Amino acid sequence: MLTMRSSIPTSALTHCVLVFMASVPLVTAEASEPTTADLPPVLLQMIRDDAVHKDLELTGDQKRSLFGVVKGIDAQWFPQLNLMTTGNTKPEPYQKTVADLTAKLQRELKSILNSSQFDRLMQLRRQALGTRMVLLDDVREGLELTSSQIQRFADAFAKTESESRRIAAKLKKQELEAGEAARQVAKLQQTERETVVGALTDTQRGRLGSLTGPAFDFSQVRRKLPFAPEIQDAGVTWIQGEPVRLADLRGKVVVVHFYAFQCINCIRNLPHYTAWYSDYADDDLVVLGIQRPETSAERDGDKVASAAKREGIRYPILLDLESSNWNAWGNRIWPSVYLIDKDGFLRRSWYGEMNWQGNEGEKDMRSTLEMLLAEDG
């Protein structure tokens, strides 16, 4: 995972990414001129975090208005984000969705924030983008970048992305240790930063400070992912437990998992969810299972209920016969599990069997659960 960093002025040009999602190519291998549609969604990510709100000095009314807008945007963003993360859509439609939603968010923010707050938010966006901020129209204009400089940046970004994909592929094949992969990525970022800064004139470097403003500590940012989609009713049968709405669970940490009772990888994850439910129920942890059928047998509510009893599941379960929840979440993998914080934001997910081939996924997810339970609601 790449984290956001900031040190102004020239080292603001460090490519930073807010999320722990699969990397999306930012430029093509041919190094054609990149556009703002190629940028990572840093504005969508940071706008929901308390540390950013504090920096902007938002009022309570502004936060309420902001979250009203963000919930509508997240309902469109998260399914596409999830599809992109799991490799179930191509980069181009996802990038278009991000660009459209970012533009919509900026329009809405102009009616919520005052001019000083909006200007500061744009500074934070530039800091978060690091080197990639030179793709923004206002930065190009502010620095008066030449076409040759822009092409040089495009070449540098294309090289970084190509090498990053190569490293990711080797990591996936276990041909590279995680620590070594991180070191190589850091070296790529450093080279990219040096290339971009080296291509700027002294005058252009001098203008960076006004474009980025005072340094912001992005390590404070906790919330980078959308609001969790609300539980859908269409085609849903509650197999056990009373119907649940996530909006009614604010103040509690929530685990939502998708499974199919005949899926062996799902079966191997079930004891972990049951253990979380048992270990943290007194700490206001809520667990919810969504059985989305894959086979004809899994469409039979009685068989789903029998399997739940056999596996010792005691938390609420719903049968998602029409895939209304499956689609609202953009989920395409059995099993998948999502951790939701006390304010309803997604904070972490895991796709597949958590302890597959020696992974310590359950341990990692449990650690995140304990962190979320300890946070103030």
UniProtKB/TrEMBL annotation:
Record bears the keyword rRNA processing: no
Cross-referenced PROSITE patterns: THIOREDOXIN_2
Pfam families to which the protein is assigned, alphabetical: AhpC-TSA
Listed GO MF terms: antioxidant activity; oxidoreductase activity
Signal peptide per UniProt: 1-31
SUPFAM superfamilies: Thioredoxin-like
Superkingdom of origin organism: Bacteria
Alphabetical keyword list: Signal
Residue ranges of domain Thioredoxin in the record: 225-374
PANTHER family hit by this protein: PROTEIN DIPZ, THIOL:DISULFIDE INTERCHANGE PROTEIN DSBE
Protein name, UniProt field: Thiol-disulfide oxidoreductase ResA
Gene coding for it: resA_3
